[in-house]
Amino acid sequence: MVSPFETDLKWEMFLKYGKRQFVKRKSVIYNQGSLGDGFYYLHKGLVKIVISTAKGNNRLINIVVPGQLLGIQMMDGQTHFTTAFAVKDSVVYHFSCEQFAKLMNEQPELLPLFSQTVNQKMRILLYAINMKTLSSEEQIAALLLNICDEFKNYEVPLTQQDLANCTGLTRITVYKILKEWKKNGLIDIEKRKFVIKRPDLLRKLNQYAPHSEAHSCPMLRRE
Question: Residue limits of the Cyclic nucleotide-binding domain (predicted)?
Fold first, then answer.
């Protein structure tokens, strides 16, 4: 079975169909409620997907890492129900609906792979709806595990500030939690990345995080 991560990576060979765009840190790629045309592929950088609540607060829905798609809900012709912010300077490729139709005509085998991506995004959305009911520790655990599952590697290329920006927690809160985890041997902190040493213990902190064997990391299989 092809994992969502492997599905998205296949888009690298079709970037010629998209329009390359540079997005500066903190810039908006698309806004909630706006009507766009097509979807995006993240080539470099980091993007967070948020949804605005009735009180005007932003709730984190997902983190998009290089090799993944975003804004795919636009393919049904409806408005965006989320907003995409660049956490880092990023490079994206935009695929218009017209370009996507042309691509499907030339590469029809991509349709089921695209459908798998849509299903994965919906699964993440359903889980993220209840994200804010979690404690700060559970939020960070969920974020790290979801990202490492996407990368299929337990080395997460983020900084403490990235985690704070993505979760909405203060940097002090993130620092204290990571310091305690490092002390207890759950993680190791290296320059601009975290190494997850005990994913089993992190999953116990957030036992309801979405996970499947098809979406697991190679390191986990060795346990």
Answer: 1-71
